[in-house]
Specification:
By secondary structure, this protein is mainly alpha-helical. It has helices at 13-21, 26-29, 38-49, 54-63, 69-79, 90-100, 106-118, 125-130, 137-149, 154-163, 169-183. It has a single domain (13-183), classed as Leucine-rich Repeat Variant.
Length: 184
């Protein structure tokens, strides 16, 4: 699971984590990516995403081959945003994320689909489209995000219209909002 929360007013845990981890050498951060504490591993992965090195890419790619669901999810999370906004490893990361989009674990699939969106992988549109009917609402939410990041087209609009009728309230709401944004 990836931590998407923010600190509540008067709390500073995530800010302090980020400040501390930003001072670590790259290799020292690797140990924290699989930490049992979700905010710690997410903060470490986010810090690694900002480092545009081959070493980070190789580490993330290796994580995607492990048996551990957490390792594969964190690998997908790092690969989906490494080196933003220029994404120097896009061509190498997309095939790995496409493969992970079919993982047995929903959290891994969700991270992979979101990563394809972050990388604006129009070549992956068919793979993203196949996740519209995923049994996991989290994966379908990632599909909405990915579609919002890809250039609008008839296919993108059609998929968002389908998701706007989803059984999950959050998926419906985000799909409808995204559809409104791209149609205006």
């Amino acid at each position: 699971m990836i931590d998407i929360g923010t600190d509540k007013k008067g709390h500073s845990l995530r800010t302090l984590l980020w400040q501390a981890l930003s001072k670590y050498e790259t290799e020292a951060l690797f140990q924290f990516v699989l930490d049992k504490d979700i905010p710690v591993r997410t903060a470490a992965a986010r810090e690694l995403q900002m480092r545009r090195t081959r070493k980070v890419f190789k580490f993330a790619a290796e994580l995607t081959t492990r048996k551990s669901q957490v390792a594969r999810e964190m690998g997908a999370f790092i690969l989906g945003q490494i080196g933003a906004p220029k994404y120097p490893f896009r061509k190498e990361a997309v095939p790995l994320l496409e493969e992970l989009s079919g993982d047995d674990n929903a959290s891994v699939r969700a991270a992979a689909v979101a990563g394809l969106g972050h990388l604006k992988s129009t070549r992956s549109l068919e793979i993203i489209a196949s996740a519209v009917s995923d049994k996991s609402a989290d994966v379908r939410l990632s599909v909405v995000f990915a579609l919002s990041a890809i250039n609008p087209s008839e296919q993108v609009s059609s998929l968002l219209k389908q998701l706007a009728l989803d059984t999950d309230r959050d998926v419906r709401r985000w799909a409808a909002s995204t559809l409104t944004d791209i149609e205006t």
